[in-house]
Design goal:
By secondary structure, the protein is α/β, with parallel strands linked by helices. It is built from nine helices and twelve strands. The chain has two domains: 166 residues, Rossmann fold; 94 residues, HUPs (Rossmann fold, 3-Layer(aba) Sandwich). Helix 1 packs across helix 8 and helix 1 crosses helix 9. The protein is elongated and about 65 Å long.
Length: 300
């Protein structure tokens, strides 16, 4: 592979339109890439059809363009990469680093989210439906997050062997994201703190596959008045396709970038240029959540 100095990405799933929390995450990854003279990619993570909403992909891409967040390469769709993911699954199974698991949710319900290793020594492909699990080790995974600081997790204690291909035949997020980040040569990942718990699993899988580790930084997620994260599942309001300047400035406030008052009269491109020139990751709050109520409703 060619050496890439900086390449970031924004990877939404098409389960609904973008909302304000999505904008904050997309803006952070975009500005970090541009401030470092890097490339910014968009990947559509459409590997879970039962959860996807018709037309969501088009709405997501239209919103990004409307807010001036233009990507630098062709969009990658995970739904077109099934054979690639299967190759890595086969490799892991051949190396006995992964195995088929026939356990049902009912069987595991008493283990409180920790997999006890029931099928760990299974090597023969079962006749009944099965998932594929990755073997974990009882060693600490230490990661220095660019915003949240040092993180440490023992996967064997935190949840045990985890699923990389589901029993229904769909590829798990943890596998697909690791493979795609590697093949797209992603060097920096800025995303919401709701994915902080996934990072040790991805980091470990990267090590197992011999991949380089991207640099990670997790920004605070925006939560509503009830304390719930703004999300498509929680029916957060879609990003309005009018007056994008107001929402961009509000997102900059969420990232503690202190946009100037005179930017209230600026164009989208002028706001993004100012934000790129003044981007400061050190100013981003080292917290996991920011209540939406703390942010200005309008910025003029």
């Amino acid at each position: 592979m060619s050496k890439v100095r900086y390449r970031g990405r924004f990877a939404p799933s098409p389960t609904g339109p973008l909302h304000f929390g999505s904008l904050v995450s997309a803006l952070a990854s975009y500005l970090d890439a541009k401030a470092n003279q890097g490339e910014w990619l968009v990947r559509i993570e459409d590997i879970d059809p039962p959860r996807e909403l018709a037309g969501a992909t088009e709405r997501i891409l239209n919103a990004l363009e409307y807010y001036g967040l233009h990507w630098d390469q062709s969009i990658v769709y995970q739904s077109s990469r099934q054979s690639i993911y299967q190759e890595y699954i086969d490799h892991l199974c051949t190396q006995q680093q992964a195995y088929p698991c026939t356990c049902s949710r009912k069987q595991l319900s008493t283990h409180r989210g920790h997999y006890p290793g029931i099928c760990r020594n299974q090597q023969v492909i079962p006749a009944s439906p099965f998932a594929i699990r990755l073997k974990t080790e009882s060693i600490p995974i230490d990661i220095v997050d660019g915003i949240q600081g040092k993180q440490s997790c023992n996967l064997a204690e935190a949840g045990g062997d985890f699923i990389i291909k589901r029993k229904d035949g769909l590829f798990a997020y943890q596998l697909a994201v690791v493979v795609d980040d590697f093949l797209q040569e992603i060097t920096h990942i800025i995303r919401g703190s709701d994915l902080l718990d996934s990072t040790p699993r991805q980091y470990y899988l990267q090590s197992v596959l011999g991949f380089l580790h991207p640099n990670y930084a997790h920004i605070p997620v925006i939560v509503a008045n009830d304390g719930k994260k703004l999300s498509k599942q929680n029916l957060a309001d879609p990003l309005p396709l009018k007056q994008p300047q107001t929402m961009l400035l509000r997102a900059l406030h969420a990232l503690n970038q202190h946009p100037l008052p005179e930017l209230g009269d600026a164009t989208v491109s002028e706001i993004l240029q100012w934000a790129t020139n003044h981007w400061n990751t050190s100013a981003i709050p080292q917290t996991l959540v920011i209540p939406e109520a703390q942010l200005p409703a309008t910025v003029v």
